[in-house]
Each structure stands twice: as C-alpha cells, then as structure tokens.
Amino acid sequence: MLFPLHLKELQHLKTQLMNLYMMSSYLNAYPQSYVTSVGEYLLTLPQQLEPLAEGISSSEANDEAQFFATEWMFK
After folding, report:
1. What is the secondary structure of 48-63 as a DSSP string?
2. pTM of the model
C-alpha cells in the first residue's frame, strides 16, 4: 500500500537540515588562530608584568622589564 507524501513535512525537514549545516560550519570545533594567539599572550602577561609589580630598584632591571612589557604590548 502506498502512503501519500507530505510535501510540507519534507520541506520543513530540508529547511532544518540546511540550518543545521549552516550552524555546523559557523560553529567550528577548533578555535580560530587569533583566539589562540590572544590566549597565548594572556598567559604570558603575568610573567611580563611581575618585575614591574615587585618595585624594581636598579635601572638595568627596570630597563629590561620595560623592554619585555613594551615587546608584549606591540605583539
């Protein structure tokens, strides 16, 4: 026995599948490279700013800390 096709349901299913496909390509499982770079910089931030927080007294150490802080800021 043949059953009637419900074209409305097929169209609805097709729309749902297209939406799912669009979302899966938009929401990638892997992070974008710029997000990874930002995360790496944020992880190095405490190391770069620690010498400045300790109140460095020698000018050589202060210059080195300033160099690292400036280098980090311009990456």
Report:
1. HHHHHHTT--SHHHHH
2. 0.35
